């Protein structure tokens, strides 16, 4: 990182309140110390790309924020819109507005597309209506009666995102949403994520496809062995060849 961006970072306007704030977060899998004191902010309505090499700790960071219990967060604070997530169970954090879309998508076998969405709305707080979700993802509307797990990979990813929005969420946490998908499907999901942003939802996207994520994101945080090595704009990362080569291998 050059000196100028260092200075710019130090002079970030303090008046912009963080919507999601992670402060000095540490987390372990058993004895393994993985998340090593992370602090970063996400502003309301922005898309933050959380990047870094394989094994850098991106999934662990999302799972820590979502209060999954694995890894176990031992220290630090996580605030979402003035609510202390660090004091909550995963269930409470979801009710407080956190929507985690894990890498494996977890579509429920034996249920149709529509039933997967209905199940997400079985308890309040309810988010987008199913009709509105079909407007956002027309492919899901066309396949509403099809069993969810028989959808293509891209459609399953859309269903996983739609299911998160079916609840009343403030922040969408996406773990490798483009993984294994053809570029045309990535285009489609990328457009949808922009539309979701226009609706005021805040997003953290973890992606191995860093260039695609940076194209979409406003800001980026780069992790390396469980610590933060960069926090700045997506544009800065795109312009900094050395940074991308060292931490993203692109
Ligand atoms: N369930 C687990 N138990 C023990 N170690 C794990 C577990 N999951 C991930 N790790 C380790 O934590 C580190 C970070 O992994 P992860 O968060 O999955 O990275 P990323 O998502 O950036 O690829 C890696 O060294 C990985 O081997
Ligand atoms: Mg991962």
TrEMBL record:
GO MF term set: ATP binding; ATP hydrolysis activity; branched-chain amino acid transmembrane transporter activity
Span of domain ABC transporter: 20-250
InterPro entries: AAA+_ATPase, ABC_transporter-like_ATP-bd, ABC_transporter-like_CS, BCAA_Transport_ATP-bd_LivF, P-loop_NTPase
Family classification: Belongs to the ABC transporter superfamily.
Keyword Transferase belongs to the record: no
Pfam assignment, any one: ABC_tran
Domain of life the protein comes from: Bacteria
Name this protein carries in UniProt: Amino acid/amide ABC transporter ATP-binding protein 2, HAAT family
GO biological process: L-amino acid transport
Source organism of the structure: Epibacterium ulvae
Cleaved signal peptide residues: none
PANTHER family: ABC TRANSPORTER ATP-BINDING PROTEIN, HIGH-AFFINITY BRANCHED-CHAIN AMINO ACID TRANSPORT ATP-BINDING PROTEIN LIVF
UniProt-listed CDD domains: ABC_TM1139_LivF_branched
UniProt keywords, alphabetically: Amino-acid transport, ATP-binding, Nucleotide-binding, Transport
């Amino acid at each position: 990182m050059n000196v100028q961006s260092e200075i710019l970072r130090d002079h970030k306007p303090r008046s912009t309140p963080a919507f999601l704030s992670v402060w000095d977060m540490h987390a372990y899998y058993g004895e393994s110390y993985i998340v090593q004191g992370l602090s970063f902010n996400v502003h309301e309505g922005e898309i933050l790309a959380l990047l870094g090499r394989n094994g850098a700790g991106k999934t662990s960071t999302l799972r820590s924020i979502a209060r999954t219990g694995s890894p176990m967060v031992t220290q630090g604070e996580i605030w979402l819109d003035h609510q202390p997530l660090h004091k909550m169970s995963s269930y409470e954090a979801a009710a407080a507005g956190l929507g985690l879309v894990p890498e494996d998508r977890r579509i429920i076998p034996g249920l149709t597309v529509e039933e997967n969405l209905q199940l997400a709305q079985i308890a309040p707080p309810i988010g987008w209506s199913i009709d509105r979700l079909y407007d956002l993802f027309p492919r899901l509307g066309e396949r509403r009666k099809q069993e969810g797990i028989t959808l293509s990979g891209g459609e399953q990813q859309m269903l996983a995102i739609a299911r998160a929005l079916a609840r009343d969420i403030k922040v969408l946490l996406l773990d490798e949403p483009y993984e294994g998908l053809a570029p045309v499907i990535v285009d489609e999901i990328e457009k949808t994520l922009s539309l979701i942003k226009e609706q005021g939802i805040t997003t953290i996207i973890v992606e191995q496809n860093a260039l695609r994520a940076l194209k979409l994101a406003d800001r980026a945080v780069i992790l390396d062995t469980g610590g933060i090595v960069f926090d700045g704009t997506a544009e800065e990362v795109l312009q900094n060849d050395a940074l991308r080569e060292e931490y993203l291998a692109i």
